[in-house]
Amino acid sequence: MTVPQKSGFTPGRENIPAAIAAMLGLTTPPAGARYEFRWQDGAFVKDDGSDPYSESALKRREVARAKERDRDSRRAPLVVLWKSIDGFDMDHFERVGKRFTRQVMLDNLPEFAGVKRGAALTVKPNEELRRKIRLFKDIQATREAAFEFTGKGKYGGEDVPLRVGLGGLQDFTASRENTHKRPKGYAPWRPQKKTTRLMFQVKQILDEYRDHLPLTGRQIFYRMVAAYGYPKTESAASNLGEHLTRARRAEMIPFEHIRDDGMSVMAHAHYADENEFYKHIHDEGSAYERDKLARQKMNIRVYCEAAGMMPQLKRVCQPYSIPVYSCSGFDSVSAKYELKESCWRAFVYHGRPTVILHLGDYDPSGESIFNDGLVEDVHAFLERDVPHKDPSEVAIFERVALKPEHIERFNLPTAPPKSSDSRTKNWQGEATCQLEALPPDVLAGLLDATIKTYINLAVYEQDLRAEEEERRRITKALPAGVT
Length: 483
Fold this sequence. Notes:
Layout: H1 18-24, E1 36-40, E2 43-47, H2 55-68, H3 90-101, H4 108-112, H5 127-150, H6 193-208, E3 215-216, H7 217-228, H8 234-249, E4 258-259, H9 274-286, E5 299-304, H10 310-317, E6 324-326, H11 333-350, E7 354-359, H12 364-385, H13 391-394, E8 395-401, H14 404-409, H15 440-452, H16 457-477
């Protein structure tokens, strides 16, 4: 960038925009008048040449420094010339006009406009806008794909309906389209435009948390509330559940991506013949995993109120050989007694305490389930069965989530405690929040971090290395069966 000492201008070339002239407070000078301005202390200072050391000396210093420094990090004088438009010389303008523009360096213009240098680096990304843009792109891409597939046929080359982008079953038979019966099995569905957009949002959430599938309907609901401003009401949650059911029946959303609570299975192992049994044993050997808790100094268990979240928690706990249990309500005396028996045997016969990590809702019922219904009851059993030890040394309980600090830290949606709950009266909290409001990846991170505070990581790494070699030897020794 070159800064000439004095650039001669032909009439008309020196005309600056009216906005800049107004900001400088200038008026049109007489024909042939010449002024120079420099940027000093946040303002333009006029130099009429009365000080012989000011402008020319400043220019020479600035030119020398500009050659050594980055051009857009250096200030330079702003030269403003006024002449009459009479006798405009285009040739002279071509020679010196471009040179004049180089005198206004990049630092002067942002500062002159009131823009802070480097402000773009401190701007935080708008996640809500990004999410909307991704959703728009997804919708447009699916509509374009649907147009390519159906545009020349069924829709006659016209734009396809938005719902076509969802795929699945949408074509009704004459006997099923006009019916008020509850759908059974695989059922076609033609959602309205508003519902279609809702399903696109659901599919985006499922894709975002694909590493944590399946999600529960409640988790999807809370993600919709946080990401898209979906109404946080029970009626809205119920409507979303109905839409999710219809979308899965119509094969718009895979069944295995969403888990429903309330189903337990007790199955037995049976085999068609001995070859299938040998194959099963060989497959078991190929999937062999060493018990990572065997050489640790304690047993660890994870209990969760929501049964539908167990697959997600198992994915976190399996590498550490930690079992996951559903304690939905935990009102069963048998379940609490079985937990006491497990803690008692581990301590009496092996000298190992048991750590119980609990995950539940933050509300009067959830707090009561953990403290009164679980901790105090199990400790009361242990007081008599292990009288020489403090029960808290035999069964160590820790609440992993949900805690009050999590609500503020992760900006989770809350609701006032239910006045109909008898536990509300003695509850110390201000607002309630459900465990499923935590994003799945955040929940997995909290649980994994808590587990690592209890285990010896050096021993764990040794077990991982030994496990690989043991798996190789076991697989080689087992029969593969006849296919």
